């Protein structure tokens, strides 16, 4: 079996879009366009209690369990703030205790948004939640400009 060898892609910006690392004084790889730096995804299950909050907390824990974000030390030293946006999908979003889910995240300004989704397993007490965790950064200069 022959393997195809691909030529490496050239690092070029798309037409009409600024490069994400532009700007004076930014840390290496810093994005200045407001997009997330990190996206993590997880799934959590409450097997017997039909507890959407417990399933959501487990989904968030699953999403961040293997993450290490060492670049955030540099961000904090430069006066920046880590912003964490959590979206959890559960069958009944109104039943999620937002503060309990927020406590799963040890750092940053955390926003939790429950939405309709997930799964109530037919013929069972199990609830499955899905979580998306997006991490972005607000630098001190950007915060002062607002």
Indicate the topology.
Elements: E1 38-46, H1 52-64, H2 71-77, E2 81-90, H3 98-102, E3 109-116, E4 119-120, E5 127-138, H4 140-145
Parallel strand pairs: 2-3
Antiparallel strand pairs: 1-5, 2-5, 4-5
Percent helix: 10-25%
What is the top-level CATH class? Alpha Beta
Number of spatially distinct domains: 1
* Range of strand content: 25-35%
What is the arithmetic mean of pLDDT?
Answer: 83
Q: Catalogue the unreliable spans.
A: 11-30
SSE order: EHHEHEEEH
Describe the structure.
The model is unreliable at 11-30 (pLDDT under 50). A hairpin with a 6-residue loop joins strand 4 (119-120) and strand 5. The chain has one domain (40-145): 60s Ribosomal Protein L30, Chain: A (2-Layer Sandwich), CATH 3.30.1330.20. It has helices at residues 52-64, 71-77, 98-102, 140-145, and strands at 38-46, 81-90, 109-116, 119-120, 127-138. Strands 1, 2, 3, 4 and 5 form a 5-stranded mixed sheet that branches. It is of the alpha+beta class. It starts with 37 loop residues before the first strand and ends with a helix. It is built from 4 helices and 5 strands, in the order E-H-H-E-H-E-E-E-H. The radius of gyration is 19 Å and the shape is globular.
């Amino acid at each position: 079996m022959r393997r195809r060898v691909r030529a490496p892609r050239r690092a070029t910006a798309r037409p009409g879009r600024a490069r994400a690392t532009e700007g004076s004084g930014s840390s290496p790889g810093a994005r200045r366009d407001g997009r997330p730096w990190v996206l993590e995804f997880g799934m959590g299950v409450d097997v017997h209690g039909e507890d959407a909050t417990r399933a959501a907390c487990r989904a968030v824990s699953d999403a961040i369990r293997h993450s290490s974000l060492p670049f955030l030390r540099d961000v904090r030293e430069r006066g920046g703030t880590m912003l964490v946006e959590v979206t959890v999908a559960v069958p009944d979003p109104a039943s999620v205790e937002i503060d309990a889910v927020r406590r799963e995240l040890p750092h940053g300004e955390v926003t939790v948004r429950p939405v309709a989704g997930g799964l109530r397993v037919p013929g069972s007490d199990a609830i499955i939640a899905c979580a998306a965790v997006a991490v972005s950064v607000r630098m001190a200069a950007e915060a002062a400009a607002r």
